[in-house]
Amino acid sequence: MQKSSIANDQRSAAETADLIRNGKISSVEVVSSLLRRIAKWNPRINAFAVLQADAALKRAEALDRMAAKGKWVGILHGVPFTIKECVDIKGMPTSLGTRKLRNNKAGKNAPVVDRILKAGGVLLGKTTLSEAFADWQCESENFGRTRNPWNLRKTTGGSSGGACAAVASGMSLFDVGSDLGGSIRNPAHFCGVYGFKPTEGRIPVAGQRDRVDSAKPAPILNALGPIARSAADLELLFPVLASCPAKRIHLDVRQLKIAYMPEFPEIGAEPDIRDAVKKVVMRLKRKGCGVELTRPDIDYEALWKLRETLRDIVTGVSKESLRKYAGERKTYIDLWEKFFKSYDFFLCPVTARTAWNHCRPYKDPWNKNGRGYPRMFYYTTLFNLTGHPALSVPSGMDRHGLPVGVQMASGLNRDEKLLAFARL
Question: Model-level pTM greater than 0.70?
Answer without folding.
Answer: yes
